Amino acid sequence: MVKTIIELAVALVLLFAIVRVLFSTFKITRDYQRLVVFRLGKSNGAKGPGLVVINPITDRISLVDLREQFLEIPHQTAITKDNAPISIDFIMFYRVFDPVTSVVNIRDFSGAALNIAATTLRSVVGDMALDDVLSKREAMNTSLRVKLDEVTERWGVKVTNVEVREINPPPAVQEAMTRQMSAERTRRAVVTESEGKKQAAITVAEGQKQADVLSAEGAQQAAILTAEAERQSAILRAEGLSTALSVVGQIAKDSDSNTLLLQYLGALKELANSPSTKILFPMELTNLLSGIRDMAMGQGQSKSFNGSEND
Fold first, then answer.
1. Per 3-state DSSP, what percentage of the chain is helix, strand, and coil (rounded to 5)?
2. Whether 64 contacts 100, CB under 8 Å
3. Considering only CA atoms, which of 250, 261, 308 is closest in space to residue 285?
4. Which residues pair with residue 29 across a beta bridge?
5. To which H or E segment does residue 287 belong?
6. 275 DSSP assignment
7. pTM, entire model
């Protein structure tokens, strides 16, 4: 009975050992992972992805992640070129491009990266003035990335990006910046207001100009229409008088000389009373004067005769 139990225990131990050996011999790595194999202490290269067979007795492995990762660098106090202390924190993005070098050449990449990032940040900020640190963030990011990448390249790690998150200048500088922003906003408001007044004045002047032009054009058109109407009216009056004279002349053919003379004088009077200026030279001026003289003499004789009868 005891022998059976011992045999069963030995069998279980052997089975456990075999399972463990199998698990230690066969490793499955994902597409973003690599296994760095050390055989008898010597690097045997990176294996994977997929199924990797190793010797559990002579081989030791290290798993390396090839995905891009980030490392948060906490607030660091640095002195600018113009001796202004500022506090800066940033994020560093990196990716392992050489799994063997990242295992062989560096023991703790995160700790080393934190220290090298802090010293590199102080070096970069020390070469920049405070205004440049506050306004040229992209240039500072680029400078940090280039310098960090130069250091981490020997560790098989590529720094892909660096982003400065927050910059805290001294309180005195913050107060001065607040006053500067307030003054800048006031200046912009004044400039905007003056520009609006200028545009409004230009618009009003342009509208007045267009109104004056339209008014002048309207007055011109009205004057042209008035002159045209007066011309047409004068033409019609002249045509009417011409027709009247023609009718008078037609009627005068059957009338005696005195009646014709009186009608002639009436027509001349109407012509003289018309608004337009006219100068008439009748062709029968000599006959007209003779007729007037004869009429005057006839009326004088008539009065002399009447006077003698009364005597």
1. 65, 20, 15
2. no
3. 261
4. 50
5. helix 285-310
6. S
7. 0.55
Q: Which amino acid would we find at residue 145?
A: R
pLDDT in tens, 174-229: 777 778 778 888 888 888 888 888 888 898 888 888 888 888 888 888 888 888 88
Q: What is the DSSP string of 181-195?
A: HHHHHHHHHHHHHHH
Whether the Cβ atoms of residue 47 and residue 35 lie closer than 8 Å to each other: yes
Half-sphere exposure of residue 174: CA atoms within 13 angstroms, side-chain side? 8
Which of 190-194, 246-250, 267-271 tops mean pLDDT?
Answer: 190-194
Quick one: CA torsion of 28, 31, 33, 37, rounded to 10 degrees?
A: 60
d(CA 155, CA 110): 12
Q: For residue 73, what are the β-bridge partners?
A: 90
Please answer whether residues 41 and 62 qualify as being in contact, where contact means their C-beta atoms are separated by less than 8 angstroms. no
Q: Are 148 and 120 in contact (CB under 8 A)?
A: yes
Show Cβ contacts of residue 70 under 8 Å, excluding neighbours closer than 6 positions: 91, 92, 93, 94
**Per-residue exposure over 61-74, b if at least 16 CB sit within 10 Å of its own CB, e if not:** bbebebeeeeeebe
Note the pLDDT of residue 218.
85
Q: How many whole angstroms separate alpha carbon 66 and alpha carbon 101? A: 13
Residue with tokens 């805290």: 168
Contact predicate 165/186, CB 8 Å = no
Peptide bond into 49 cis (omega under 30): yes
**Are 303 and 295 in contact, with CB atoms under 8 Å apart?**
no
| Dihedral pair phi/psi, residue 202, rounded to 5° | -65, -40
* Residue given tokens 């018309």 in the structure block: 274
Selection from 139, 15, 145 nearest residue 93 by Cα = 145
**Neighbouring-strand partners of residue 69:** 94
Instruction: Determine the Cα–Cα distance for residues 168 and 78; give it in Å rounded to an integer.
Output: 11
Q: Give the CA distances from residue 260 to residues 55, 213, 285, 299, in Å, rounded to whole numbers and listed in that order.
A: 155, 57, 14, 17
